Amino acid sequence: MLWLRFLKLVGVLALAAGTVGAVFPGDVPLKVRRRFAFLLVGPGLLLSWGLGFALAVRLRLPLLSTWVVGSLGLSLLSLQAVLYCAGREGRAGWAPGLLAVLTLLGTVALMVWRPS
Predict the structure, then answer these.
(1) Is the pLDDT reported for residue 73 higher than 80?
(2) CA dist., res. 2 & res. 103, Å (int)
């Protein structure tokens, strides 16, 4: 079970790194921000969701608990903000970037503290 947790952490780290790379442009061209979104955020989300479900089943946690449903919703909102920023030139900025990062932080907080 430790390897499941480790791989889930790898997925969350890829998701976080890709999110920051895709939404805070600086002098980064759109092509590079799209790579962050498609090569890190997408697989990171898939890995963290898949392994999260596997851990929940293995630990016999209810899949419809508040923190699971809230985490899924916040992570989807974060993904949409990333895809919005990486979709077209001029969209990346502080408002959608903060939305993506804060919802991702909320997702991680729900997964760590698991409020009922």
Answers:
(1) yes
(2) 26
